Amino acid sequence: MHPFVILIALATFCSTLIGGSIALKLKDKLHLILGFSAGAVIAVAFFDLMPEAINIGSKYYAVATIPSIVALGFLTYLVLDRMIFLHAHINDHDDGHLLPTAGDPVAHHRRGTLGAGSLSIHSFLDGVAIGLAFQVSAAIGAIVAVAVLVHDFSDGINTVNLILKNKGAGQSAFHWLIVDAAAPVVGVISTLFFTLPESALAIILAVFSGFFLYIGASDLIPESYHGHPKFLTTAMTVLGAGILYIAIHVANL
């Protein structure tokens, strides 16, 4: 393994931790951070994961295969969210009408865990990508490492937000932040023991593209807009996508 790989892995830990710590500190402005996170999550899917999956997958699969896998990932997450981790609502009668009240805390907890867990697995794969890239060459490893570093900051924010907005406690959000921050370090270390075929990596990246598109569009965006000024939250969503777009493209230069 290249001698700088462990240092880079530790840098990803710090980047994720700093992003999540900022989200915890500013949780009173959660709707604005959620708006930013929605744009950032969608940008990571569109501008990072999906292009990389297509680039790698074009060597092994037909043109339509990767977009189909992205759609499968989106629908799989939808099923998990709507069926397995279904929102439970307590219904009360009011003049003969059923009124939904607050969702079941257990359902919220499961939904937050599903989202934060997906981000943590993605962070683990980030570490795997760094380790495998350095197996190819130091130059490719450095490019991949920079790309990972620039969006790990956002990953930390997104992990915390997914717990907090699903009524999770700050302590729970911090625990998931530590898991997400440690995941790329574990991913890098794991590449000492195996090599992942590029064909499999393309499929994994495509699946997570679908996951993140669902999280951003069906979860974070509606939650950030609920009961808050829509212009400012919309601006934060566009800002989040724009910053990640610039960061990813600068990292890939």
Give short descriptive properties of this protein:
two-stranded antiparallel sheet; mainly alpha; 79% helix; 253 residues
Write a brief structural summary.
The chain is mainly alpha-helical. Helices cover 79% and strands 5% of the residues. The protein has one domain (5-86, 101-251).
Write the topology of this structure.
Blueprint: H1 5-25, H2 30-57, H3 65-84, E1 89-94, E2 97-103, H4 105-136, H5 138-164, H6 170-190, H7 198-225, H8 230-251
Antiparallel strand pairs: 1-2
Helix pairs in contact: 1-5, 1-6, 2-3, 2-5, 2-7, 2-8, 3-7, 4-5, 4-6, 4-7, 5-6, 5-8
Description:
- This protein is mainly α and 253 residues long.
- The chain has one domain.
- 79% of the residues lie in helices and 5% in strands.
- The chain contains eight helices and two strands, in the order αααββααααα.
- It has helices spanning 5-25, 30-57, 65-84, 105-136, 138-164, 170-190, 198-225, 230-251, and strands at residues 89-94, 97-103.
- The chain has a two-stranded antiparallel ribbon.
- A hairpin with a 2-residue loop joins β1 and β2 (97-103).
- The longest helix has 32 residues, at 105-136.
- It starts with a helix and ends with a helix.
